[in-house]
Amino acid sequence: MSKRLPPIESLRILEACVRNASFTRAAHEIGITPAAVSLRMRNLEAEVGTLFTRSGPRLEPTRAARALAAQLAEALSLIQAAVADCRGRMPSLRLTTVPSFATHWLAPRLARYHERTDSVPIQLDAAIELRTTTQFDMAIRTGRGSWPDFDVTQLMPVELTPMVSPALMAGVRLRSPTDLASLPLLPHDDWPSWFRSAGTRTPRLRFCADEYPTYELDAMAAVAGAGAALLSPTLFAPLLSEGKLAQPFAQVMRGPSWHYLLLEPHDTRAAVLGFRAWLQSELEECQGATR
User: Fold this and answer.
1) Are 8-88 and 91-291 equal in CATH topology?
2) Measuring CA to CA, which residue among 134, 130, 194, 131 is closest to residue 160?
3) pLDDT per position as a tens digit, 142-188
4) Structure confidence by residue, pLDDT tens digits, 257-271
5) Residue 288 — very low, low, confident or very high, per pLDDT cuts 50/70/90?
6) Fewer CB within 10 A of the end CB, N or C, for the chain?
């Protein structure tokens, strides 16, 4: 008999066969066919000696097989505990993302990500500027996709539509997009583009004196009644459902800017690719729910 260690998978199958007292039940538990189990056990017996004896239509484990299976059960339990401990100490992934996407889309869904067996801790950094590559593992940024030094994955379009506080709309009739000229508007470069997407000319607009660097701050100012803001009805849907803001027009401009996930080229770490796959599946589910 060979002195080398038999395949670990064969030993795992032996433990399942003895514990289940059946090749068929062991096969069902492991997810292979009974024939594959029988082949594994024949090959294992060729290495370690007789493990099963036939008693009528049944195969009975020998005393040696029972003793080996008991010790294997302890060993497999130790392996499972070691793997769980390793996962618990797995280093976190550093994700930097634009604040509005982090606050209104990603953060509320991270609990779903951690339901996955392959999830890892996420160290979230909400920032407008792109960090240096030594400061993050993954980045979510907004633009036209022109990041030649990264592996770029398109996520979701930037959506924009006017959103106004009910107090600011009081006494004002917004029957057509041009009626927005009667309200103060929070500065945004895409106001003319939104009017074009709505199929109308851009009227003479009155902008607020203050200009904010993030959509989050624009939304807060709009809720306070400072002016109408161009915001995403997807990211800021809670403000609409709570009645803090209203969407006076159905027209939503989607693109040309998008949210993108940026990875270092050739980053094949399972944790990184797993998070990207989860992110894409969540976006597909979200987009399907809004169709």
Assistant:
1) no
2) 194
3) 888 888 888 999 999 999 999 999 999 887 888 999 999 999 999 99
4) 899 999 988 888 888
5) low
6) C
DSSP 8-state code for residue 5: P
CA-CA distance, 202 to 5, in Å (whole number)?
Answer: 78
CA atoms within 13 A on the CB side of 236: 30
Give the tens place of pLDDT for each residue, 36-84.
999 999 999 999 999 998 776 678 899 999 999 999 988 888 887 776 6
Instruction: Look at residue 210 and give its three-state secondary structure.
Output: coil
Contact call for residues 168 and 225 (beta carbons, < 8 A): yes
| Annotated domain spans of the chain | 8-88, 91-291
Domain spanning 8-88 has what CATH number? 1.10.10.10
Task: Specify the CATH number of the domain 91-291.
Answer: 3.40.190.290
